[in-house]
Structure formats: C-alpha cells, structure tokens
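Journal club prep — side note

Before the paper discussion, L.F. wants everyone to see what a predicted structure for a comparable chain looks like in token form. Sequence:
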Amino acid sequence: MKSKTSLFNRTIFKKNITHYWPAWALYLVYLFLAMPYFMWIMLQDYDYYNEVDMVERGLYAINGVVRAGMMVPVIFIVSTIMAMLVFSYLYTARNANMIHALPVTRRELFITNYLSGLAFLLIPQILTFIVTALVALVNNVTCIQYAFYGMLCAAGMTVFFYSMAVFVAMFTGQVLAVGAYSLIMNLLYVGCVNLVGMFQTMVSYGASGDISIGKSAVLSPLYYLFTHTSVNAAYGMTGKLESIEIIGSATIFGYTLVGIALMVAAYILYQRRHIETAGDLVSIGIIKPIFRWGVAICGGFTMAMLFASATNQYKINKIYSLIIIGVLAFGILSFFLAEMLLEKNFRVFKKNRLIECGVMSALSVLVVVLFRFDAFGIERYQPKPDEIQKAFVYMDYVIEVDDEDVETVLELQKEIIKNKNEYLDLAASTNTGYYYTTFRYYLKDGSCYTRRYPVPTTDEYLSREDSAAVWLLDYEKEPERLARSILGTNYRENIYFSASINVHDEEDTYHTETFGADNAERIAKALLLDIEEGNMDDVYRYAVQRDTYEEYSGIELNYVNSNGNPSVWSYYYDYFALVGDQAAGKSAREKAENNNVYFHLTPQCSNLLKVLEDLGITRDMLK
C-alpha cells in the first residue's frame, strides 16, 4: 500500500520529463548558445582583443556570459511557461478529474509538479554553469566566480518568477490566462501609477505626468528587477577592465524569499481549489468582483482619456465633461464585457450586476468630480522651502535656481496657480503668446515634484512688472546661467582642443572647417563675450526672439575637463543620480573623456563672427 505521508511521486515526475522535455531542452539549448558557446567565440576573437591581455579578455567574456544568464525578461517568460505546462492538467475538466482521481494526495501532486517545473529551470542553469566553467578553464580564464554569482542570481529570480506564476495559476481555470495574469501582476502597480499620472496630467492644472515611483516600484517585480539589476564592467583609472559588478543581488535575494512565501500560498490555494472551476477565467469567487471592477475602472479611464484627447480639447474645464462621458460609457461597457468573460454567457444584465455597475460608475464619476475641484490638493500643493534640496525652472532653457531664490520661485508658482483660468483661456485661444514653463523640485526625502504651466508672453503681459514672464525673462538674463546651460556647469575648467563649423563655398557645396586648440579657445572666449553682451538671446530666449530672427551654421567645441562637466540638463533630469555618483567618486574615469558642445550663430553674435572672419569664414559662408 502506498504511504499516506509521501510528498513526491516519481511516476508523475517522470511523466513531466517525457511530456515537457521540449520546453526544458529548448531552454538548455538557449543557455548553452548564450553562455558557454558565446564565451568560446569571444575568447577566440583575437583580432578584436589583440590589444587586451588574457585576464581582461576573460573578464570581457565572463561579463557577456553573466549578462546573458541574468536576462530578466527571458527568465520571466521561461518560468511562466514552465508553470503553465506542469499545472496544465488543472485547465480542462477531463484532465483535472482524472488526475485528482488517482491514489495521490493534493499535497503530493502539488509538490511533485512544483518541483518538476523548478528542476526543469534550475538544472539547465547549473549544467550551463559547469560547461561555462570548463570552457573558461580550458582558455585559462580564472575569474569563474562571477559566472557562479550570476548563476545564483538567475536561480533566485527563477524561484521568484516561477513561484509567482504557480501562485497566479491557482486563480484561474484557463492555461493562457496564467501567462496574461502573471504579466499583469508583475506590471500592475507601475501600470496603475502611470495611468493615474496620465489622468492627473489631463485634469490637474500644472501636473506634468512626471510621477516619481521610487522604491514602491518593488510592487511591480518584473519592472523593478529589469531596472534595478544589472551586470556592470568596472574599469580602473587607466581605462582597463578590472572586475565585474553584479548590481541588485540583495534585491534578488529579497524576491527569492517572497517567491518561497508565494509557493506556500500557492500550496494552500491548491488544497482548497475546486476541480469544477477548470475552464473558468477566474477560479476563486472572491476574486471575480475585483476582476470586474479592475477591468471596468482601468478600461473605462483609459478609453475615456483617449476619447477626450481625440477631441483636441486643451481646456481643462471642457476635458472634465468629456472624461465623465467616457468614464460612464466605457466603464459600463468594460464592466459587462468582464462579466461576460467570467460567466461565459451574454446574459449578464441581472439586477445585482446592474446595481454593482451603478455603484462602480458613481464612484468613477465622483473621482473625476473630486479632481475637478482639486479635492486632493494636487494643483495647490507646493513643497516647503526647507523640504527642497534643489530647484529648477525651465522656460527658454533650464536654470538651476540659486538657493536664495527658492522662496521667490515658489511665490511665482503660487501666482501662476492663482491665475489658472486666465492662463488656460489664453493657451486655448491661441498658439502663440505663451510659453510653457516647468518648475521642478528635488526634495530631501528623495522624491521629485514637477509642475508645468502656460505662461503668457504677449506684449500686455511683458509690460507688467509683476507678471511671471517678466520675472523669468529677467532671471534668464544673467549671463552665468546661460553660459552654464551651453557650456556645462563647470565650464570655466574646460580645456578646448578643437572646433568645427559647417560652411559652404562659392559653388554652394557644404564642407566642414576644423580648427585647433588655440582657435577653439578663441571661439569659446568670443562665445562667453556674446553671452555677456546678450547677443545669444535670439538663439536661447525664444520668448523675446526677434521677428527678423535668422540662424547661421552651428559651431561644435570639443573639450576635456579634469573635474567633470555635467550639463544643467543632466542635473535637471536626474539630479539625485548625478549627485550620488559624484559623492561616490564614480565619475573619475569619465572626467578625462572627450566632450563637446554645439550651438548656433545669429547675425547678432558680433564677437563670434569677428573671430570667424579672422579665420577666413565670412557671413555669406554661414547662411
């Protein structure tokens, strides 16, 4: 008699091997091609690595191998497919009844099938590592430890993605739904945050859609692992590859522990699963309302925003009514489509469902109304001065706000918010006479707050000393700010070694004129002088651009800077990352690398034109 305490069934395991061998065999082939074979090819490519010693060549090869083995999308796809295969018997009534009629317990079935799928994923990874190590040793590559670390990281991600797919598999009675649900669950949080950001951008004055998800993105594992794990080549000061860094191993370990918890939860759900749910889109009754509401709300709001955008209505007040119509129409449609899928029937217009749909629709409209009257304070919100680490304003070009001006900038933004209706009416009535201006604040808690408003620049507003445009234009006048925008934040330490400009000759044929270090330095000094005299306004201050604006060819200046020279734009888009890299000294190697700046000329750039004329470049050659 078969033991009642058996946890593993060899017969079922062997059946899984013979039934699903193409899946794990294909995965094994992929790993062999992507890792040991790829490594062998790289190590034989002496032409490419003829100036690289054997140690560095081995690091290059191992780096490529570890990257291939840790590709997050591949691990997710293979893990999900394996879960779909080993538990595929749950998704047809015939197979489900037959398997559960065998003299085996549900515990035995779950553990055997779970371990089968996990073995089909981990064993190919282990075998591939062994073969990779042998290839490395044959080629005198000794840094095999990185491949071992990479295998452990890949195995950790595999445990998580596979366990999550098995967990999701307990919620449905359709095999294809396992793949769809796994993808949705892995991206749901980030997707919802972005959906809210899109909605907020459309209906909240100033909202830019730049939502900083931050560490909470961990709730979308596929996205988080893809963006927070990497294999980096670590170079020394001489530019030589010295080691390999696997970023995100602690994150992977955390997800592995979560994967183990999901495996236990999946086992509990399997014990309580009803066999007759085979074929159902959702196999657990309590999840069905969540499915209906999720499809209705996400589908309703998404389609409503597309509907509102298609009307080309840019006034927020008009967009609200369009979104309410869209939310009602598309939300109701999505709700009953979801119900049809759940019931596998067109007869879904029952009293209880109509009431439930009415409640859902009312709540959706309520959300829109609350946004309409800024009940959440999104439009009114401003960070406090002592909460701000760094502030930026961007109308014509990005400006890093001086610390003493932060409170003034906040007051300016408050004034723009107060004039919301006036500014929106102007923006909706004309395509000219205003420029969008962005306020961006990096806060000390690690978050980023961004708002973007249309700022009037008509003659009427430019004649008013208290207008936002006048203050911003005056702030832009400071030559130092424009110089930093064009030449970089540490531009005074740039060492220029060449310059070039496109010109055309008498035959109207374009060619490039190149200048050495001395003349490049002359051009840079002339540029700074033109900035000081306001001669570059036509190029960079669009709000006051002359009607007779004429643009000449552009000049490229090439330079090195021993202390690094990040652009204001870089700080604007990723301030925390740049400051963190500088604090950690990570930019040491990059400081000596060549950099360049490019800018256009206008007839007003008298100092630059004088230098070019001395070099034989006339105005006619620049037009």
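L.F.'s comment for the group: The first helix runs from residue 10 to 19. Keep this in mind when we get to the figures.
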